[in-house]
Amino acid sequence: MSDYKTTVGIEVHAELKTKTKIFSNSINGYGTTANSNVNVIDLGYPGTLPTLNEEVVNQAIKAALVLNCEINKNMHFDRKNYFYPDNPKNYQITQARTPIGVNGYVEIDLGDRKKKIRIHDIHIEEDTCKSIHHNNHSLLDFNRAGVPLVEIVTEADMNSSEEAVLYLEKLRELLLYADISDCKIEEGSMRCDCNVSISKTEKLGTKTEVKNIGSISNVGVAIEKEVARQKELLEKGETFHEETRRFDDKTNQTILMRVKETGNDYRYFPEPDIPFVRLTDEMIERVKKTIPMLAEERRTNYLNRGISLLNANKIIQNRNLSDYLNKFLDTDINLVIASNLLLGDIQFYLNKHNTTIDKTKLTDDKFIDIVKKLDEGKINNKVFKDIIDDIMEKDTTVDEIISEKGIKIISDPNAILEVIRDILAKNEASVKDYKAGNTRASKFLMGQIMKETKGSLSPEIVNKLLIEELDK
Amino acid sequence: MKDKLTKEEVLHVSRLARVGISEEEIEKYQVELKKLLDEVDKIKEVKNYDEELLIAPYDHDTVLRKDESGEMLSNEEIMKNVPASIGNFVEVPVMIND
Amino acid sequence: MTKYLDLSIQQINELLKKKEIKPIDLVNECFERIENSDSNSFITLNKEEAIKRAHELENKEVDNLLFGLPIAVKDNIVTKNLRTTCASKILENFIPIYDAEVVRKINEKNMIIIGKTNMDEFAMGSTSQTSYFGVPLNPWNKTRVPGGSSGGSASCVSNRLAFLSLGSDTGGSIRQPSSYCGIVGMKPTYGRVSRYGLIAFASSLDQIGPMTRNVYENALLLNAISGHDDKDLTSSYREVEDYTRMIGEDVKGMKIAIPNYLVSDIVSSEVKNKLMEIVELLREAGVTVDFIDIEYLDKAVTLYQIIAMGEASSNLARFDGIRYGYSVENPQSADELYMKTRQEGFGKEVKRRIMVGSYLLSGENAKIYYDKALRIRDDMRKAFKDAFKKYDLIIGPVSTTVAYSLGEGLDDPLKTFMDDVLVIPVNMAGFPGMSVPMGFNKEHMPIGLHIIGDDFEEALMYKLAAFIEKKLNLNLDPRGGK
Q1: pLDDT tens digits for A74-107?
Q2: Spans of all domains in chain C
Q3: Is C1-482 assigned to CATH 2.30.40.10?
Q4: A285 to chain B, closest Cα gap in Å
């Protein structure tokens, strides 16, 4: 049973971040009122012609660069002809013969080794209308019609659901960090279609395409379910046709959408309305310079500063937090503490208030001050929890907030020692227990000290001093 | 050489172009379409030609548009010629899959 | 009765400037003539708006030669708030919500659109008989076709129902009806006039152009509609010249070629003989006229069919009954919506062409037919370019015969293509081509001379056309010609 080899190829559609649409100057943004960002070109009105948005070409060059593709400097567009109500002209302007990028790759980390997933091509195309259903009819919103997309097509290089997930996470990270797309799968700005087949021989088996998967982790689930389904059929000696299936996240099953017509006939031909687009070396160089620090470099920087791989990855998954943390890469503050703060209480606060750091009163100076105070043991995490609301909402300094709250900061080791000695004097029995080898007694003493100081001391420092004192 | 297309061939092109044809018309199209196809088949006689394509007689390359927004339509304008609509939406009289 | 439509544009301009007449006088005369004519040149009249516009212009300065002139616009050029049908049932009730760029330009020149002219459905045809709204008539003989597809634009100018008109030319659709109706028609260089707002038939071939009573007025109208448009990526950045500037210059020393194919057996002897008279006339004036071979001309119709039908099948896919136009009632599926809407909305010529076009692009055919056609097309353009290295202009007949009888060849799907065999190569290669009257046959039907120029050589073409026009001094008013 287990000797089937799984083969997966993935097509990703990512919406490009631009102000306007690809072939018209109406606004690229479909979160707004239905059919509010539409002009005659988006409606496919008779007589209209496309123009080509400069920023779309720049973004696509950027995408080709970060995916290590060769760039087609003399590119053209093609028409893909198919009738569908969400397709306003009943042809889609895309690139079939001269995609902007070819022969690229994305490297994924399998733990013990790295693997290159080859990119067959990346091409530019327009999005269709969004359709919604109503009383057995469909309703069209043209806000999405003409939104710029890149389609990124891999070779069938992935051999497990894990590899597919790693590829998608890496791809998402690249597109997100190069500011190419906001890659929100839930909102449809990144869409994944997986071609899955299994075979016991070198010859690939019949593939099925799974569409409409709502998250990267579900891509993994969908591939596993599809592999299992295909195995079951093959084991029963049944054959099946190439077909398109949809992933249902409620039942975790893939569901048949349609059996593919033999040789999908898209009647491609060169788009006569758009002359050749020549990309010069200068253009490509100019775009290259706009690529911000990518995730891989960020990860290396974080690890070099002592942040764990787990936390580094968590930070990188949240572009805003990573950008914020990067502001302090050139400072000597403790980035481990900084990253813990960001991933912990700060993210919790931001989520709770549904806001972003730049909209709070957390200045860079305040952040540095807090990290230093924590690092030096002047405050601990509990204190930070008590003051975070004020930190985020008030213009006052950290010191002012602390004193307003009536929190005593005991930072002089002698003063701490005094408290410790006082507690030890009051709990002679426990000290005896400790000396007799019952190390648990120190925990009790620790608790007493923290209680006495209302938790304002750094537990690490207190613990260190306490043990020193007990071991005297 | 046959002098007309088969019925199936006619129905195939009718479906490709999404142009319905009635039973009575099929026979007529079998002959007419065949005449046109025979004519375009003459291209097969041309042997000498180079590989360069002329997609359209452009006299320049594409000049890209600045990413700046322009005027958009009001819902009233959008709906002016729409056969069926509901609220802000254009209605398709049937249900479609995504 | 006033007869402003018999005066030249310069004469009208003088009268307007002197305030002896007002634009409304011109508009009234046009509508009076249109309403008293049975020519069926128009699909939709713009009477109310035109009158309103004429009154508005009364307070404006007469700032150019085209000021206040009534103009007719082919019904495949979109006009905001004015019905635009493409002579098709599928757009019978279509009211555009934007103006074509050429419409913006003629409004800018303060011309007045009086109506939308009749044509072959979606410009597919060479007789205007495929119109859903009935055929427009040839003013020289009402039993003859006016030519097509811009038949209404030719017939209304020839019949003196409008001063000027706009047509479109994909494979001869300006030049051939101009020849059949005895007027001057220019298909400019591809990219000279913006196609934004021209309902596309074959995008790589389509071009809008002027159709007028004489050469000078044609050049004037080309001046008005030419120029780069950011909305059309194929529109040229070349500066617009004054196309009238060479009119009246001596033609002595010009070098002209006639491709042998254009005087071969496919051309009727009466047309050929008329062309030979012109050759004599030119040689007497000191013009060199040589007969040369241009390769691939005999394949132009085949290339044209593949490219034009292929592109058309895609361009006309948008007519599906969802966003505009005719829509079948209560379809049970998306396919039924498409199939029935298009079955009922399109006429038979259009249906034939989009079916064949779809087939030619499907599967392997795209390579066998379409790609190969684009390759030969490139070679054909190069062959023309070689000829233009030695010759200033190329001439020939526009059409193999004069206008023929209504109904003739209607059931022959090839006839309409063969009518355009002499003019199609120009669209394939992108060059400018024009028709200028060179005389009549013995039934007194007009015959047009075809002048072909190198890219953007329209001014030179007008120079030759104006010389011939002056030399022949034909009476081109069909009402006075009888």
Answers
A1: 999 999 999 999 999 999 999 999 999 999 999 9
A2: 1-482
A3: no
A4: 17
